[in-house]
Design a protein that fits this description.
heterodimer, A: alpha/beta, eleven-stranded mixed beta sheet, 10 helices, 21 strands, B: alpha/beta, Rossmann fold, six-stranded mixed beta sheet, four-stranded antiparallel beta sheet, 10 strands, 40% helix
Chain lengths: 445, 250
């Protein structure tokens, strides 16, 4: 095991290994932000298993790998190379990132309604620096942990979505992140900023796709700001390469009466962690987080929720389900804090796990910390196997064992998939899940 | 059609069926009655091939084939249907999808073409109407949140759709009020054909007022101690099971 100094060195070396500011003039505030982030890298605790938030999730393997920050594309990707990964772009506004950088010519359907800014964060530095100066780091993401600081120190590109007050987007936005480099291990760090002004409404789909065997670290930070009465439906489907590390840190700030509905599906990666940090700024906001993960041989999947009710009358719902079928591990660490003044908070947290084999492992830790006295809160967790009575019932009707198990697994996961209100994504998710479960059930005894 | 000879079977090392014999010919309705723990449900589970039951002696032939050598789903493909005493709930599995999958699995196994979606929908709705089963329940998850009576009706609906050659109905009457019992009995009677056999497993004579059996058997201690026609059921209703056990002991 490497020492703490060596571990911190990994972060500092990456943070200073490239000078993104060299690729163009940058405003002072951004330069300052980078300086602050580099300072933070010297001071923030190094994630290790003594820290509660990293107790079940080791980063040892990650730190043993050397990465090159993907600042400029080493090459131009042809349309033919990228097309097969993308699929149909029907009825969406699509934005494509390759190795962390926006490829404008792949964007489709971008005749946007007035009041909507959607595109590359890098490009906006030139065209709309004021918007970025106002909102970037609004949620304090750069101060949270080393990985977010690393992302901030090297801010280069990402998604920028800004919707003016009362504008409702008619079609979903689809952002596809393709991680395709196979010759060297890249550090891809999209930095996303999503701001919905009062009363704005949108649906955002994010898809993470990796070329088979590609080794990379996708270290993404997404800041989400929902102003009064804004509504965001946010669906994420992670299908990274099985040789990759994937960390998505989402920082959500919600004003009064805003509504966030998030569904995260985690299928790929050798090491995949999704963190949600939700903060209610004013009353009567609603936050719904749904998640589904499948874990097979050699995979670790981690969901980490940090929900803070610090004002009265907010609602949060968290439902996460996992199917474990190979020698792999899942971690669920969900924490809801209800502060003293947050009366009438309504918070419900659930995590259910289906273990198809004995040698899989899940560490699940739902936590409710309540300091107010007039609240409605509950949490629960289950770890179980397929019910033999249910399998027998299906078989007694003529359905073979594999199909019976598959139907029950899909039934278990269906509740989460059904929360996705974009039909094409729901189909894609079902297809991916069915294929995964098919492989999983065929290898069972 | 079904021939059970000297069957010994049990679970968890305990032998429950102790030399059971039964012959069922095509088109016949047999009622198997008996006190709690006599082996009624064990018989139905052994015939359907439930995991955990061990057959230690005897044989079961279905149309001449060794039934016990077949997997559960293969028995279904041959035309065996078990209407469960406690139908389980299948969370997240849509009732209609489930029935269609089941029908098509059987059709594929028999080398028949799959039923197309439109024809299936039409039929399942028609059968549900006969059984006075709310059409909404077809759209729900299998048995999820169904009342006791709705679960049993859903079992008979599956029987109607799957058209088995031998239906074993395990305490289908338990927990039903008189109206539900009538509807279900009408449903079962409508499915009686000259080549479809039915085994009714029941505690009470009540069900047999609605579905008239050709033969009544009394199962006690894992063996059939007495067989007769429907009058035997009336006698049991009147006198209980005690006298048969006493006669057998004597």
């Amino acid at each position: 095991m490497s020492t703490l100094t060596e571990q911190r060195g990994w972060f500092s070396a990456l943070a200073s290994s490239s000078e993104p500011e060299q690729s163009g003039p940058e405003p002072d505030w951004l330069r300052n932000t980078r300086v602050l982030a580099r300072d933070a890298i010297r001071e923030l605790p190094v994630p290790n298993r003594k820290l509660e938030a990293w107790r079940y999730t080791s980063i040892e393997g990650l730190l043993q790998q050397e990465f090159t920050p993907a600042v400029e594309q080493g090459r131009t990707w042809t349309h033919e190379e990228l097309e097969p990964w993308l699929g149909p772009a029907a009825d969406v506004y699509r934005l494509v990132f390759v190795n962390g950088q926006c490829i404008p010519r792949l964007a489709t359907g971008l005749e946007l309604p007035t009041g909507v800014t959607l595109g590359s964060l890098r490009a906006a530095l030139g065209t709309d620096p004021k918007l970025l100066a106002t909102w970037l780091n609004h949620t304090g993401a750069h101060e949270e942990h080393l990985f977010s600081a690393l992302n901030t120190a090297l801010i280069h590109d990402g998604l920028l979505l800004h919707i003016a007050a009362d504008v409702e987007l008619d079609r979903p936005i689809e952002v596809v992140y393709l991680n395709l480099e196979q010759d060297k291990a890249l550090l891809n760090q999209p930095r996303n900023l999503v701001v919905l002004e009062p009363g704005a409404s949108a649906t955002l789909v994010e898809r993470f796709i990796g070329a088979e065997e590609a080794v990379y670290f996708h270290n993404q930070v997404t800041e989400l700001v929902l102003q009064e009465g804004a509504e965001l439906r946010h669906y994420r489907m992670q299908e990274e390469s099985r040789a990759s590390w994937h960390l998505a840190s989402l920082y959500l700030s919600q004003d009064a009466h805003s509504r966030y509905q998030g569904t995260s599906l985690s299928f790929g990666g050798r090491w995949a962690r999704t963190e949600y940090q939700a903060r209610f700024q004013h009353e009567a906001a609603q936050c719904e987080l749904n998640g589904l993960y499948t874990v097979g041989k050699g995979q670790l999947t981690d969901f980490h929720l940090d929900i803070r009710h610090s004002v009265p009358n907010c609602t949060s719902r968290e439902r996460f389900k996992g199917i474990l079928f190979g020698k792999g591990r899942a971690v669920f660490d969900g924490r809801i804090l209800v502060e003293k003044q947050a009366q009438k908070s309504d918070a419900q947290l659930r995590n259910d796990n289906l273990m198809l084999v004995r040698d899989a492992e899940v560490d699940t830790k739902p936590q409710l910390e309540i300091h107010a006295d007039d609240v409605q809160c509950s949490h629960g967790t289950t770890v179980g196997q397929l019910d033999p009575q249910q399998v027998f019932y299906l078989r007694s009707r003529g359905i073979d064992t594999d199909s019976a198990r598959r139907m029950l697994c899909l039934g278990f996961a269906g509740e989460i998939i059904d929360t996705i209100e974009v039909p094409i994504l729901r189909e894609q998710a079902m297809e991916r899940l069915t294929a995964t479960i098919r492989t999983a059930t065929e290898t069972l005894e | 059609m079904l021939s059970i000879k000297d069957l010994y079977a049990g679970i968890d090392g305990k032998t429950i069926l102790q030399g059971l014999n039964l012959e069922v010919a095509p088109g016949e309705v047999h009622a198997i009655m008996g006190p709690n723990g006599s082996g009624k449900s064990t018989l139905s589970h052994v015939l359907a091939g439930r995991d955990g039951y061990e057959v230690t002696g005897g044989q079961v032939r279905f149309d001449g084939e060794d039934l016990l050598a077949l997997a559960t789903e293969e028995r279904a493909h041959r035309g065996i249907f078990l209407g469960m005493q406690y139908p389980v709930e299948l969370p997240g599995v849509n009732n209609m999808t489930f029935m269609r999958e089941a029908m098509n699995a059987n059709r594929r196994a028999r080398g028949e073409p799959e039923l197309d979606a439109v024809a299936f929908m039409k039929r399942v709705k028609e059968e549900a109407r006969h059984l006075k089963l709310d059409e909404q329940l077809l759209k729900r998850n299998v048995n999820s949140g169904f009342s006791g009576g709705e679960k049993k009706r859903n079992e008979i609906l599956q029987m109607a759709m799957l058209e088995p050659r031998l239906a074993i109905l395990d305490e289908t009457d338990s927990g039903l009020d008189i109206d539900a019992l009538r509807v279900i009995s009408d449903g079962v009677n409508a499915l009686r054909t000259p080549d479809r056999s039915i085994i009714l497993i029941t505690h009470y004579q009540r069900l047999l007022e609605y579905i008239q059996p050709d033969h009544v058997h009394v199962l006690v201690g894992g063996r059939i101690l007495r067989s007769g026609d429907k009058d035997l059921a009336l006698e049991l209703e009147e006198k209980g099971y005690g006298w048969i056990e006493e006669e057998a002991a004597a």
